[in-house]
Design brief:
This protein is an alpha+beta fold and 351 residues long. It has a single domain (5-350), classed as Deoxyribonuclease I, Chain A (4-Layer Sandwich). It has seven helices and 20 strands. The strands form five sheets. Strands 1, 2, 3, 4, 5, 17 and 20 form a seven-stranded mixed β-sheet that branches. Strands 6-9-10-11-16-13-12 form a seven-stranded mixed β-sheet. It is globular and about 60 Å long. The two termini are 17 Å apart.
């Protein structure tokens, strides 16, 4: 198995090329990412869902051409995430707002990603719009051994809310067992306050999945990723999952949310109705954090980032500074998504 090795400066402020003259340590690095692909639908009407309301189906332009361009744009972004440190695209990337396996096949077989040999883990969810979550992984870095989906089975006023499944994938990142939960929680339709209980119930489902993992492995390395439709400070994360944004306050079995610090600095992953939000995050369990002695003998969390390169940002107009989305007012913009991707680096020392 080919391993990409980088030399990492042991300043722990940033991961850069070069060698520290005092330490001289070498590290392997893997990128774990998440990306909301903003309505990645095909051009075929599915009578069992409301896919006809998707921007590409509503377009009067050449749909096949728009679809191919949308695929190319999404693939280009994925090919760039984390590459400045890992020299390759993400080893593992969770995605949401995809219609079916077919669009994912087109994505991983695009010219930008074909050589990476990504495989797909996908289930059809009961979401009425027909959008799902999925996991893509480079086969040379990740070997799944188990995957399944869970639905939060949310009810409001005695009526079921048909929301997305939560995807659990367990497998070996190189030779280390990790567990990934991919999420796309209920939206804020009807307002944040009114819809808050829906996301809290989704968070409870995550909590049950985590407990199930820990029954088999008390020291499980877990990454929880997704578009949570909540900011790091909202109750679904702080009260239900009990995430913490300061490492020194973490206790055993706590979840660390590195995006809480970024949110408090004013960073965001999307803008909506003149509000900036950070809905896209990757949370990590404490076994993925190095101790005070900086033990990187196994894969540990190193950095969390938002992939907000200049080409992904709207450059002018009312939404200047927002993500450069692919459709606006029903017209294809040749943009990308209304969300920025997020990613973390995991590093391990090389003996």
């Amino acid at each position: 198995m080919k391993t990409i090795i980088l030399i990492v400066t042991i300043s722990f402020g940033s991961c850069v090329y070069g060698q520290n003259s005092r330490q001289g340590k070498q590290y392997s690095i893997r990128t774990i990412a998440f990306y909301n692909l903003e309505n990645l639908f095909d051009t075929i009407d599915d009578p069992s869902t409301y896919d006809e309301t998707s921007p590409i189906m509503e377009s009067i332009q050449n749909r096949s051409l728009l679809y191919r361009k949308k695929i190319e744009n999404m693939a280009y972004v994925i090919s760039q995430i984390g590459s400045e440190k890992a020299n390759t695209s993400p080893a593992i990337i969770g995605v949401c707002e995809v219609e079916n396996r077919s669009v994912l096949e087109d994505l991983v077989h695009s010219k930008q990603l074909k050589a990476k040999n990504y495989e797909i883990i996908h289930y059809e969810s009961p979401d009425k719009r027909g959008i799902d979550v999925a996991l893509l992984y480079q086969t040379k870095y990740f070997k799944p051994i188990h995957h399944e989906v869970f639905n939060p089975n949310i009810y409001r006023e005695n009526r079921r809310v048909y929301t997305r499944d939560q995807l659990l994938v367990s497998g070996y990142l190189d030779d280390e067992l990790v567990h990934i939960i991919v999420n796309h929680w209920p939206s804020r339709s009807g307002g944040e306050e009114k819809s808050r209980p829906l996301r809290e119930k989704a968070a409870y489902q995550n909590k049950k999945i985590i407990q199930r993992i820990r029954m088999r492995d008390e020291k499980a390395k877990i990454l929880i990723m997704g578009d949570f439709n909540d900011d790091p400070i909202n109750s679904s994360l702080k009260a239900v999952l009990k995430t913490k944004g300061i490492k020194s306050k973490l206790k055993e079995n706590d979840l660390y949310n590195p995006y809480e610090k970024l949110f408090k600095k004013g960073l965001n992953t999307l803008g909506h109705r003149d509000h900036l939000n950070l809905f896209d995050m990757i949370l990590v369990s404490t076994p993925l954090l190095s101790k005070r002695k900086k033990d990187y003998s196994s894969y540990k969390f190193y950095q969390a980032k938002i992939f907000n390169k200049h080409f992904l940002i709207t450059r002018n107009g009312r939404f200047k500074g927002y993500p450069f989305r692919s459709f606006s007012n029903g017209v294809f913009t040749n943009g990308f998504s209304d969300h920025f991707p997020v990613y973390v680096y995991l590093i391990k020392s090389i003996p």
